[in-house]
Amino acid sequence: MEGRVDEEVYIDAMLRDLEADLPLLCGRSFETIFIGGGTPSLFSADAIGCLLEGVGGLIDCTQASEITLEANPGALETERFSGYREAGVTRLSLGVQSLNAPALQALGRIHGPQQAIDAVTRAKQAGFKHINLDMMFGLPQQTPAMAMEDLASVIELGVGHLSYYQLTLEPNTPFHHTPPPLPDEETLWRIQQQGHAMLAQAGFEHYEISAFARQGEKCRHNLNYWRFGDYLGIGAGAHAKVTAPDGVIKRFWKYRHPSDYLAAGSGSTGYIQGERTLLSPDLLLEFMMNALRLSAGVETTLLQATTGLPVTAIRDLLNRAVARGLILPVNERLRPTPLGRRFLNDLLAIFQVKSIA
What we know:
Strand content: 15-25%
CATH topology of the domain at 65-224: Transcription Regulator spoIIAA
Strand order of the largest sheet: 1-2-3-4-5-7-6
Distance between the termini: 43 Å
Shape: globular
Helix content: 40-55%
Number of helices: 16
Radius of gyration: 21 Å
CATH class of the domain at 65-224: Alpha Beta
Number of strands: 12
């Protein structure tokens, strides 16, 4: 939901977008709904309610027990938390990033530590039992001691899920053009190891490379991604992955800029800007890029169920990964070792092949 546009116009466009995508469902129901991208919490609670009501009128959402909304800790958004909960949202994902004031300022965040703390308090008061916080480490001039103090403060907020990941310098950002002084590789490794140990001691399971959850708090929506499940995406810049009844897998993406997206709805081609069919061997690499992010990996049967490739077709590749200590010996699961999770790019490179025999 990028850009400031008229709520009613944009929600109407999203529902028409979904209606156009209905043939892709092939009668399937939805298990999760995720309202994210940009700042969806700038939309009013009434708008979110209209969106969810409209979605429910078009598709079977009876199994969608997890409905997530991304939000920033700003005062405007937090005032709407009760309305979002009443509209049907069951899980909030808050972009806290840090509870250190200088760090937030260096990141260019408009909220301060107290606003982030207040946002969690208001979310709980609004009735949200499931709250995810996004948090970064490896911030400008951050030491291990500073990072652990920051993480301890976030843990004290008492939420059930944390996305804990390293700051990266994305292209076309101010940080990328003029990089701030960042911790060196050795310091980053110490921060990561100490942080993971602190989270484990606090009862968080490290179930995905950057995701930590207390019992019963894993994000079902993201698990579907990592298990290479299908999903639809509506709205500006949204992406989708859909498996047809014949097993062909396609990715779709919608027009990115809101004005282009809204204009596309009145054209003959609809909201889809482009599509790509996933074919072997790219299909194998995409499956592994998701599945091997999970600490527990996935069952071997999922490979054939989602890609059509039997595990026997990649036995040589798996043996190579096992020999390098990046994957555990393959029986009923494809599971990375701690070394494989640390050097995931090296592990994935094994499955980046030109053909599969």
